Write a sequence for this structure.
């Protein structure tokens, strides 16, 4: 009987040959030493809801070579009340609490700057990222560089060093980044915008940091409040509008709304 490898299986066999390792995506750490290159997928809402729970290696555009791994990620905002998706997010968070950071408002993201980096040249030695692998430290440094470039246009009023310290003082995001890998679903930041606390500069910086690190980012605004669009260009993320309430047969609930 003839057989034909799927696209993912073919990529696995090619990578195994290049790295001199046996096939099988469940070899722990097979991608850990590779340079991380996040790639944002532009999707429809239905695609985003499906891909959000899928592992990186089965997402479109995932590529692992000899020196780098391209990590497809999602960054989107949902305006509207999709209780089915909200329940799925809650269930996923319960099973993957180390890889998921959930916020019931923007207030925790406005936390003060507690890091004390004195020079950007010392960034890779900062205690806040000491537990990261070298590949993830390199990704963190690249993310900070991209944040600095972004702020030059956004004009948020922080110095480059202050921006780096805001990034370092984002412990939950850094820890989720630490636990994420290509063998798993990407780490995630999920925010419920209940407008109890409006988005501020540090919130926007930390949300964008999570995206640049390679985390999936999802913002839910049941009442369609403006938030991240005040800071990021429209082509930086997907914006979905749910015109009608989507509910399950049994009553849904939003676990972070209290």
């Amino acid at each position: 009987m003839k057989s034909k490898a799927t696209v993912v299986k073919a990529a696995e066999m090619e990578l195994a040959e290049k790295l001199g390792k046996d096939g099988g995506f469940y070899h722990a750490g097979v991608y850990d030493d590779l340079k991380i290159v996040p790639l944002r997928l532009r999707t429809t809402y239905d695609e985003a809801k499906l891909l959000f729970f899928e592992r990186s290696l089965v997402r479109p555009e995932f590529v692992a070579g000899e020196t780098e791994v391209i990590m497809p990620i999602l960054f989107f905002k949902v305006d509207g009340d999709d209780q089915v998706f909200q329940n799925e997010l809650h269930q996923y968070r319960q099973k993957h609490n180390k890889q998921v950071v959930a916020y019931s408002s923007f207030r925790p993201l406005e936390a003060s700057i507690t890091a004390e980096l004195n020079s950007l040249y010392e960034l890779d030695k900062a205690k806040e990222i000491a537990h990261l692998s070298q590949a993830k430290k390199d990704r963190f440094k690249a993310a900070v560089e991209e944040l600095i470039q972004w702020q030059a246009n956004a004009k948020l009023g922080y110095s480059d060093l202050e921006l780096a310290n805001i990034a370092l003082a984002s412990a939950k995001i850094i820890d989720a980044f630490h636990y994420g890998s290509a063998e798993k679903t990407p780490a995630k930041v999920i925010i419920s915008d209940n407008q109890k606390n409006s988005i501020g500069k540090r919130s926007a910086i930390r949300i964008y940091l999570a995206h640049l690190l390679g985390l999936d980012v999802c913002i839910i605004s049941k009442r369609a409040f403006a938030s991240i669009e005040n800071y990021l260009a429209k082509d930086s993320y997907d914006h979905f509008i749910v015109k009608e309430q989507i509910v399950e047969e049994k009553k849904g609930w939003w676990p972070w709304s209290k």
About this structure: The helical segments are 7-19, 45-51, 83-95, 134-154, 160-168, 171-179, 201-213. Residues 73-241 form one domain. The chain is about 35% helix and 15% strand.
